[in-house]
Each structure stands twice: as C-alpha cells, then as structure tokens.
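Researcher: First entry.
Model:
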Amino acid sequence: MHIVEYLCREARRITGLSLSDLRDREYWAESRQGRWRMLVEMLGLEEYLDGGSREAPEYEVT
C-alpha cells in the first residue's frame, strides 16, 4: 500500500466517524460550546478569542 492510499483510507474512516456521537439535536446544542472550545484550541486561537485587547503590529506595508 502506498502512503496516498493509506492517507485516503484513514481520511474516509475519520470522516465516517466524525459525527457518530451526535445522537440528536438536543445533544448537539448541549455539546456545541465544548466542541467550539476544542476547535479553537486545536487551531491555536485561544489568545485571539479571549476578549482581551491587543496592540496593532508594528510594521509598514510598502
């Protein structure tokens, strides 16, 4: 098996399982905030979404 075949197979497997734990609309509504926090953490965006103030970067576009 080539690496491309392996990666495609794993991507299909992960995609197939991605929503398997969402039983119904109520469960989705209850778990939405936690899933959002996990996504923000995985993307490394916690510091940008904390609501605090940040200074503008010091650079000039020419």
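Researcher: Second entry.
Model:
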Amino acid sequence: DLNLPGESGISFLRELRRHPATASLPVVVVSAIAKSGQQQLGSVAVSVLDWLEKPIDEQRLLKAVSHAVKNGPRKGRRVLHVEDDPDIARIVATMLEGVADIDLATSLSVARERLSNSDYSLVILDIGLPDGSGLDLLPQIHAMDPPIPILVFSAQDLDDDIRGQVAAAFVKSRTDETSLVRAVSACLEESTIKKTEDRNKT
C-alpha cells in the first residue's frame, strides 16, 4: 500500500530498489492512489508487477501474487526438505517449482549430512521421521551462521515453546498450497536479506 503510517510507500519502494538484496524483489501495489503513485515513480514503476486500485479485484490480486511467487528470483535459493513420505515430497516440489531448488532428505541422518555439506536458505521440516524426530535437528540448524529459517510442515501440531523456535509451522491436513508457498517465499526473502547483510559486514 502506498499510504503507509509514518512513511511514504513510494519512498519505501524506491528504497527497496536501491538495496541489493531487494532490488529484484517482486512487488504488487494495492492502494487507493495506485494510479498517481505509478506516475510519481517514473522508471521505478516499470519494476512493479501490477498496480491495483482499491477496492481490490481479488482475482487479479491472486493472479499477480501467484505470478510473483512462481517467477521471483531464485538464484542461490536452495531449500532442504526433510520428509520421508514420497507423495508429500513430490507435492511440495511441484508447489515450489520456480521458487527455489529443492534437496530432499528422507531421514535425520541424511539431513544432518546435507546440512553439514551444503548451504541452504530454508529448511522445511517434518517431525515424524524413520530414525527419530525432525525436531532433533533444531540445535544443529540454530547453531549455523547465519541460522537457517525453519518451516515445520508436519502431520503433528507444535507446542508453543517449539513454535517459538521456528519461522513458521503448518499442519499438513490444514494447509492449502497458497499459504505454504507464501510462507516459503517470505522465509526465503528474509534469509536472502540476512545473508546479504552479513556479506556486507565482512
């Protein structure tokens, strides 16, 4: 929205485009002043996927968000999916096609090895695994520098204390594709920004 409390949405969008980590971040503008904002932004407006005036056309918004998620930048975005159910693994891989590159680990031991040898932007974690609980991976993931965001996608719900240790948590039977893809995309953007900030500090 271009009408932000205490800040101009136009200034915020210009700042996004100046920051290396968010220069190519997909943006959809939904605002009562979308048309005038488009004129004010000039050349920056070209980088916005869509401009929607309020009241919102829900179908157009969903189409724009779906396009942003599927066609956003994926360079360096690698996700470790810890899941022993091949059907769930295939479904998630299909959902995230074009969003990130997916590595599958079907057990704790494989996940530990991949975490030690590869650089990931996100871990999607099942709890019930053949050789233990996926939650046993939390200490290893949190100890990494920088820590990798964790999205739990499991048949089991989480206790509040565990929920506070992860970026997001979803129960498989209660989660639709749009919610999962949006959560994954948000985690990946956050991870990308943190990695860029860390590189700039060194």
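Model: Note on the second entry: The mean pLDDT is 83.
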